[in-house]
Amino acid sequence: MNRFERVKQILDQAIGGPDKTIGIHGAFWRGLTRDQFVAKKVVGVVLLVVGNGAGSNLVKALKGEIPFGMDLPDAPPAAEFSRMPAGLDPVPAADIAFIQKWIDEGCLEDPMPG
After folding, report:
1. pTM score over 0.90
2. What is the pLDDT of residue 82?
3. Which helix (H) or strand (E) holds 89?
4. How buried is 65 (Cβ within 10 angstroms: 0-12 exposed, 13-18 middle, 19+ buried)?
5. How far is CA 50 from CA 11, 32, 37, 42, in A?
6. How far apart are alpha carbons 110 and 24 in whole angstroms?
7. Chain centroid to CA 52
């Protein structure tokens, strides 16, 4: 498994497995190549900023940071979207950190670290 495959696995796990789907955008990551994933827009919003995990909407959505988090108990007033995955348990911090580091390092399809 390479790191891009691990990112997709984390997203599948977040919604209950590879046979589940979610919300208005569905499991948008499935069937995409790395290049398609990097260029992806979800509901018109750019998903990734390669080299800037913290500034990427995927990471913000998983953490519930603006513009996401309107469903959180202390929702920021500027939040426009729910934390992802909406209505489900949050993605573990270690998994979000993995995705953020993957984006920071260029969204590579290199082997998983040993």
Report:
1. yes
2. 92
3. none
4. middle
5. 18, 16, 11, 16
6. 31
7. 13
Give the mean pLDDT per block of 10 residues along the chain (114 residues): 97 95 89 96 92 98 95 91 92 98 97 84
What does the DSSP assignment read for 15-59?
A: TTSTT---TTT-STTTT--HHHHHH-EETTEE---TT-STTSHHH
| Cα–Cα distances in angstroms (integers) from residue 68 to residues 15, 18, 23, 26, 82, in the given order | 17, 24, 15, 17, 5
- How many whole angstroms separate alpha carbon 40 and alpha carbon 107? 13
Question: Could you tell me the CA-to-CA distances from 38 to 16, 33, 46, 54, 79 in Å, in that order?
Answer: 23, 9, 9, 15, 24
Q: How far apart are CA 110 and CA 103, in angstroms?
A: 12
